[in-house]
Amino acid sequence: LWHGQHLIAPAYLPRELEFTALFSKSRDAELNALVAERLGFGIVRGSGGREGHDTDKGGARALIVLKRLLDQKRNVAMIADIPHGTPREAGLGIVTLARISGRPILPVAVATSRRKVLEKSWDKTAINLPFGRAAIVFDAPITVPAEADEAVMAKMRGDVTAGLNRATAKAYALV
Description:
There is one protein chain. The protein has helices at residues 9-12, 27-38, 59-71, 92-101, 150-174; strands at residues 19-23, 42-45, 75-77, 108-112, 115-117, 126-128, 134-138. It is α/β, with parallel strands linked by helices and 175 residues long. Helix 3 runs parallel beside helix 4 and helix 4 (92-101) crosses helix 5 (150-174). The strands form three sheets. The protein has a three-stranded parallel β-sheet, sandwiched between helices. A two-stranded antiparallel sheet has the order 4-7. It contains five helices and seven strands. A hairpin with an 8-residue loop joins strand 5 (115-117) and strand 6 (126-128). The two termini are 17 Å apart. Helix content is 37%, strand content 16%.
């Protein structure tokens, strides 16, 4: 999923799939994490952050936990773009997790016909409103080769970005 388009997603995902979701350690993510936990999601906290920022946000530890969950055939949900980075551009974390786990990335978008968009937010957050139509769209799975080098990883980031953008455009067109 993309930042800003993820708020309603936990309400639509089937509970029997038992997802674990990644949330940053920031205060901004605290409410989202609490809501997701109440909806039955497992929670892992951490993020890698933006290039050039060397503070430890728990990203490496979170990546290890998520990889172990995937090894156990559990489902993991992640936001692909980096907080306060370039919106709608996939970061390296999701691609790295796919490479080391061997599990594919499934781009997903959720849209509602009734929403309030926070235009001044960095990610144009959509606050989904009741009494409208909703769409969940999946794009084709993306597999990252285990032997992917830096150039292949950059291409895979582009593929994830394109897949999420296709899913998002289709979801909004449906509603």
